[in-house]
């Protein structure tokens, strides 16, 4: 099979091609869906298309309109839709065996070995992998069990702005109130403390190392305040809770608004976890597998977490699989210590192997870094001309653009306008942020330079029009 086709060969086209949207066939399919599908369906409410097929960084709807996909299944399709290098291997595997629970297969062992090779920091070659259910939420549930089992404690610490999933344990760690409404009570002794937010945190003058618990303070007030809050939850005898079993953190917050913390934050968390015999668990479900221009978001901060949760892009081509990679010293489970019926989804394991290989063979980490810098620069050109954009941020092809209204308040409506205008002109984008006021761009890593330029032109035009 070789290295597979170049990224230039993966797509329907380099540019979008749309007429009237939604077209009549999409309208018909949307009406049929509304009549029979769950009222929990969300995405078609904002982007009304019926999908027929997809390739690379492009999607074709049932009316023949071709769109540039700038949200890639919310970080699932890192090597693009229907990548032949991945799909051919998956199809071959499906003719052999699909479901194996946790009996050994070549793909299972090979995927674990691949993940050990690319693991962040000291986890390389010193880690184990456990598969459970097929989603990121399932991976988080496994991490909760790992932390509790190894510490004997049940408290948990997460951050404001966090999203970790929607099952019971994962939802307890998720910070968004809208996801929890009507589902209380959550797990006990789960606390949320501030996450550094450089665009909004007030900055104090002078040396702040006096109250920052990090060994090497980076002098960022928001970072110091957050780390101080974390430390107090562990070490203050009147913190109000049991010392947590672990710290759950997104190295870069996704749903919270693509928020990139200061460089010292993850190192500070590592120090606090070590001082208190707690696990540091990095939720890399959205930031992992090359999304940020590194294999994992943790790599940007030079920190080794105790465990890494993965899903989304791990299945290579959208096949569902969740996993957790953790330091081998925490492999204290007995047989059946963590289970899940679909932990033997062999085609998804093959998809993961081939996706990692494709990223390696086509140098997509560097490509994601380069194209991501280009896109952020394009948006910063607009930001320099207006006070309605307070920050353009991100790493690699994980990009957020935060908007406010004329009074400086979060502007959710302008995101909807930009999204709608971009859609009508052939580019699909999504939103994020605590107030829905962040434009979130997470295109497949295989997006070409031409597609990035064309897509940026369309999105920037939509922004400029919305700001007028």
UniProtKB/TrEMBL annotation:
Keyword Heme: no
Pfam families, sorted: Aminotran_3
Cofactor dependence: pyridoxal 5'-phosphate
Domain of life: Archaea
A GO term for molecular function: identical protein binding
Keyword annotations: Aminotransferase, Pyridoxal phosphate, Transferase
PROSITE patterns xref list: AA_TRANSFER_CLASS_3 (PS00600)
Homology family: Belongs to the class-III pyridoxal-phosphate-dependent aminotransferase family.
Name of the protein in question: Aspartate aminotransferase family protein
Annotated source species: Natronocalculus amylovorans
């Amino acid at each position: 099979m070789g290295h597979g086709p170049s990224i230039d060969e993966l797509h329907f086209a380099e540019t979008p091609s749309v007429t009237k949207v939604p077209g009549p066939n999409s309208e018909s399919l949307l009406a049929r869906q509304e009549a029979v599908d769950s009222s929990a369906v969300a995405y078609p409410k904002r982007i009304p298309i019926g999908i027929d097929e997809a390739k690379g960084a492009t999607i074709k709807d049932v009316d023949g309109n071709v769109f540039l996909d700038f949200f890639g299944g919310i970080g699932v399709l890192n090597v693009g839709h229907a990548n032949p290098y991945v799909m051919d291997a998956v199809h071959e595997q499906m003719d052999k065996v699909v479901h194996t629970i946790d009996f050994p297969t070549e793909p299972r062992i090979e995927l674990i070995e691949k993940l050990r090779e690319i693991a962040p920091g000291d986890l390389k070659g010193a880690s184990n992998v456990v598969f459970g259910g097929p989603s990121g939420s399932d991976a988080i549930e496994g991490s909760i069990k790992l932390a509790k089992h190894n510490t004997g404690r049940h408290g948990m610490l997460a951050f404001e702005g966090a999203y970790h999933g929607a099952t019971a344990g994962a939802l307890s760690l998720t910070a968004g109130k809208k996801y929890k409404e009507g589902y209380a009570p959550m797990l006990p002794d789960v606390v949320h403390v501030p996450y550094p937010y450089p665009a909004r945190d007030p900055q104090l003058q002078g040396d702040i190392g006096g109250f920052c618990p990090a060994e090497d303070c980076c002098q960022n007030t928001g970072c110091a305040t957050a780390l101080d809050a974390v430390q107090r939850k562990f070490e203050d005898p009147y913190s109000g809770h049991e010392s947590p079993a672990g710290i759950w953190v997104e190295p870069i917050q996704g749903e919270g608004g693509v928020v990139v913390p200061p460089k010292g934050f993850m190192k500070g968390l590592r120090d606090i976890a070590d001082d208190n015999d707690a696990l540091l668990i990095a939720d890399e479900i959205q930031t992992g597998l090359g999304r940020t221009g590194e294999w994992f978001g943790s790599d940007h901060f030079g920190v080794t977490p105790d465990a890494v949760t993965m899903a989304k892009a791990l299945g290579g081509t959208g096949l569902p699989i969740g996993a957790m990679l953790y330091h081998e010293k925490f492999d204290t489970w007995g047989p059946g210590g963590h289970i899940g019926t679909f932990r033997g989804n062999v085609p998804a394991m093959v998809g993961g192997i081939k996706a990692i290989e494709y990223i390696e063979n086509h140098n997509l980490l560097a490509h994601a870094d380069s194209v991501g810098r280009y896109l952020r620069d394009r948006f910063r050109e607009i930001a320099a001309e207006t006070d309605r954009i307070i920050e353009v941020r991100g790493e690699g092809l994980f990009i957020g653009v935060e908007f406010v209204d004329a009074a400086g308040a979060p502007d959710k409506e302008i995101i909807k306008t930009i999204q709608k205008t971009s859609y009508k002109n052939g580019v699909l984008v999504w939103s994020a942020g605590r107030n829905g006021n962040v434009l979130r761009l997470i295109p497949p890593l295989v997006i070409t330079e031409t597609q990035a330029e064309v897509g940026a032109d369309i999105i920037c035009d939509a922004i400029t029009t919305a700001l007028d």
